[in-house]
Task: inverse folding
């Protein structure tokens, strides 16, 4: 049986992903876009973990959340390195 509490939490986290999405699309600087993407990735990890409880498959969804968190971390580090090198270039 699907718990309405976890479903409500999942919907709330999905709604919380809209302000960072706006920042990614309209951000005045590239750093704002990177921070917005990082925040969306963090909320995505939380959403995956909660969906694991909703569908009663916590083990599978937590594994997916860990992989997604690692990909998010590597992506943000790569974007930061790219921005650092681009700023130093003459």
Result:
């Amino acid at each position: 049986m699907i718990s309405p509490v976890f479903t409500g939490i999942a919907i709330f986290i999905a709604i919380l992903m809209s302000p960072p999405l706006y920042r990614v699309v309209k951000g005045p600087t590239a750093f704002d876009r990177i921070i917005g993407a990082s925040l969306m990735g963090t909320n995505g990890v939380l959403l995956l973990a909660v969906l694991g409880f909703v569908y009663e498959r916590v083990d599978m969804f937590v594994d997916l959340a860990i992989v997604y968190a690692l990909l998010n971390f590597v992506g943000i580090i790569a974007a930061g390195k790219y921005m650092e090198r681009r700023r130093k270039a003459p």
Residues 4-88 form a domain with the Helix Hairpins fold (CATH 1.10.287). DSSP finds four helices and no strands in the chain. The chain has one domain: 4-88. The two ends are 61 Å apart (CA to CA).
